[in-house]
Amino acid sequence: MRTPRWYVRQRLGSTSVVYINPQKISVCVGTRYPGLKQRLKRLRRVLPWPLPYLYQVAMVLRYPYVLDDELFPAGKDPRSVRKFRMLQDVWEHREQPEQSRFFREQEEEIQRQGYVRHKRHRVRSRSELQQFIREYFLDMLYSMQRDGYLPDKTSHIGTGGHGTAFIDARGRLVKSSGADHRFAAAVLAGVDRGFPLEVIGIHRRWLEQNGVAPDSRGAVGQIVSLIRRAEQEHQ
Questions:
Q1: Is residue 8 within 8 Å of residue 220, measured between CB atoms?
Q2: Is 157 helix (H, G, I), strand (E, B) or coil?
Q3: What is the CA radius of gyration of the chain?
Q4: Is the C or the N end of the chain the one with fewer CB within 10 Å?
Q5: How confident is the model at residue 160 (pLDDT cuts 50, 70, 90)?
Q6: Could you tell me which of 116, 192, 127, 198 has the C-alpha nearest to residue 157?
Q7: CA 78 to CA 30: how far, in whole Å?
Q8: Is residue 153 part of a domain?
Q9: Do the domain assignments include residue 44?
Q10: Nearest to 121, CA basis, from 105, 108, 137
Q11: What is the β-pairing status of strands 195-203 and 17-20?
């Protein structure tokens, strides 16, 4: 099924969102478009602007929902990635965040260039850094520990929206990008249910093993049952 991802997501709507135990996620890949970054890097070496940008737009629009081996990326333990280790560091030093490695590194960066950036938010001083850690990271972590995942809880710093995931050739949910800090906070705070991820792609082999012909017209309708199965297996 070379049907583009945007079309399948439109057809699936909210049925593509799973609510799972984040502790059960053992693999992450950190991108919604596996393989695209590498292709663009090669093109930028040989093509003048704006051709690589136009190629990127075209590839995003054509990007498939069903992924073959060459597109499905090698994953890693989500607990090993930088964002997770950073939040873990802050959580382990929650009584004195200034003692965390994250705080020291951010403070050094402020002294060097005058500010540090988190998404669209700039922190320019030690006091602002303390406030940022307290009102964003620690507030999120304590909230997760106390109340679990709250879908309506927002922050003026965070971007909001669901995190995303793929289903790999073994039927495992693989965390991709989006909601990385919320995911890390949920794992660290011991949340074990109700964490939302939108399934944005499935490995071709998993479809075929479960009797779904990936290139057939009816494949989109059959995908819903496999998404629900993955959801159930990650409770």
A1: yes
A2: coil
A3: 20
A4: C
A5: low
A6: 116
A7: 9
A8: no
A9: yes
A10: 137
A11: antiparallel
* Residue corresponding to tokens 């950073």: 86
Residue type, 228: R
Number of structural domains the chain divides into: 2
Strands 163-167 and 173-175: antiparallel
Domain final residue pick, 127, 147, 167: 147
pLDDT band per the 50, 70, 90 thresholds, residue 73: confident
pTM (predicted TM-score): 0.89
**99 and 143 housed in the same domain:** yes
With tokens 């040989």, the residue in question is 46
Model confidence at 159, pLDDT cuts 50, 70, 90, reads low
Averaged pLDDT for residues 73-87: 93
Task: Please name the residue that has the structure tokens 């003692």.
Answer: 99
Name the residue range of residue 71's domain: 5-79+158-232
Q: Both tokens of residue 221?
A: 């309708």
Closest CA to 30 of 85, 76, 66, 79: 76
Closest CA to 181 of 155, 200, 201, 147: 155
Residues 95 and 55 both lie in one domain: no
